[in-house]
Amino acid sequence: MFRRYPITILIVALSVFSAASPAITEWFQLDFSKAVEGEWWRWFSGHVTHFDLSHLIWDCGMFAVLSVICESRYRKWYPAILLASLPLISAGIVISCPEIASYRGLSGIDTMLFTWLGIAAIKNNLRRGDRIFATAAAVGVACMLGKLAYEGITGEILFVNSDSFQPLVEAHIAGAICGAAAACFDWQKTPKPLLIFSKAMQISRERLCRLPGRLTDVSARHGNNQGSHASAPADAE
């Protein structure tokens, strides 16, 4: 499972880990003042932090489903697109909500993935001449846009109890923009810098997949070394 969906499992695991204690959450969350002052990881890690259990379950559940699909269909490009979207969505929140001190949640990324898959499905089905599935995908994207409009007008987030935090529809809008950009990009004419970046991400992903096996080998070697050291005195006698 980890070898097939390492990115999905890693993000969900980080989300659960960040919720293990308030101290970890505080260190991971997107605190805008600290991020601007040099704590650069917050532009990325803020998305894996959450305010409560309901927030965590909804965000991670939606992310797991959408991420598995994206990681299966766009295995080559998915790590690069996801990594680029994290700080872009964070920057969108900073620009549109300068009064906000901190941000937590995967909902912006969830919206990005949904938009990417939806628009890509419309394009692919129209290219194949399948208007029924293209229409179904268009309805899904329209429902997502309707959700954004409702949240923008009412200030309430659908599906998540937001009593413990202030919902930010701006994060969802930024995610939708990133997803639309990913879906509309012409992957057949990829610029060289993006190709190099994607290749680097692919290499990192392959190394991440091999990490559990390497840890097992190191553990086995360590155990063998301990056994040989323990038997040395007996042989000497």
TrEMBL record:
Full protein name: Rhomboid family protein
Primary localization class, coarse: membrane
Pfam families named in the record: Rhomboid
GO cellular component: membrane
Organism the protein comes from: Roseimaritima multifibrata
Domain of life of the native organism: Bacteria
SUPFAM superfamilies assigned: Rhomboid-like (SSF144091)
Transmembrane intervals: 49-70, 77-95, 101-120
Molecular-function GO terms, alphabetical: serine-type endopeptidase activity
UniProt cross-references to InterPro entries, sorted A to Z: Peptidase_S54_rhomboid_dom, Rhom-like_SP_proteobac, Rhomboid-like_sf
Bilayer disposition of the protein: Multi-pass membrane protein
Gene3D superfamilies for this protein: Rhomboid-like
Keyword line: Membrane, Transmembrane, Transmembrane helix
